[in-house]
Amino acid sequence: MNYVVRRGATAIATLFAVASLIFLLLHLVPGDPAEILLSSGGIAPSKESVEALRVNLGLDKPLLEQYITYLGNITTGNLGTSFQDGAPIGDEIVKRLPRTLELILAATFISVLVGMPAGVAAALRRGGVIDGLCSSLASFGLSVPVFVTGTLLILLFSQILRLVPAGGYVGFADNPAQHIVYLLLPAVSIAVGLIPVVFRMVRTSILEFLEKEWVRTARAKGLDEPRVLLLHVVRNSLSPVVTVLGLHMGTLLGGTVLVEYVFNWPGLSGMLVQAVEQRDYPAVQGIVLVICLLFVLINLGVDLLYGMLDPRVRYK
């Protein structure tokens, strides 16, 4: 119980620090949001109109007062309203967040589907052709930026082969088949960088467990090789893989910006880019805070899972 309380308190303190850092960094960015909003038509606004808009947006108040108001709002779940259209930011995040999560989950599924069998095969054929080929492809996948991967996929499958559209979005309820088609390329673009992580972790874990004494004992008792591999090696090697996947899923929450931009996927990252360009402080604060909240919750879940699997962790 004390372990859970400590981890929960750490998560709350982390969120408080992140929220404060987001607020301070955004207010250090050059540019007046009121002036930027009034200059959208290309005409320099008057000082009176800029000052009036600053008062309307609450930007005329002292920074400390804005900070206290900001913290008070987020504790009640109020992420504020957009400077652009006055719409509640929370409503737009609720609409866009599932699209980003869907993209991440699809990429994770693809990476597990490809990376785990490749890791097992490479470990069982250590030093062979399969191991060398898979390791080389994994190194290549890690070295290629995601926007390069996305551009190459569009060029190959959309422009040359014309198998799938280059980008866009259709709701699953409107057209399930077309929705999956639009989801495929951006998910694969993310998965290309995640597959090597899964592959290397699986390969390393399999090689480690193959050397365990209880695996040798199982073989000595006469168990057939497939049963030894599935029940005693692969099964026990899944724990570190699940942990790494959980941490990388949290990282991907803030790493889908380029993918959503390249494929015109209307997720949370696209909204974040637009909010930064327009100096929409409440929108940027709300989006980054939600991403950090999910990341902290994922890490908290991993810590608690470690505490359940290994009691020694609770006393550290």
From TrEMBL:
Gene3D superfamilies: MetI-like
PANTHER family: DIPEPTIDE TRANSPORT SYSTEM PERMEASE PROTEIN DPPB-RELATED (PTHR43163:SF6)
Cellular location(s): Cell membrane
Family, similarity comment: Belongs to the binding-protein-dependent transport system permease family.
Location of the ABC transmembrane type-1 domain: 97-306
Keywords: Cell membrane, Membrane, Transmembrane, Transmembrane helix, Transport
Protein's recorded name: Peptide/nickel transport system permease protein
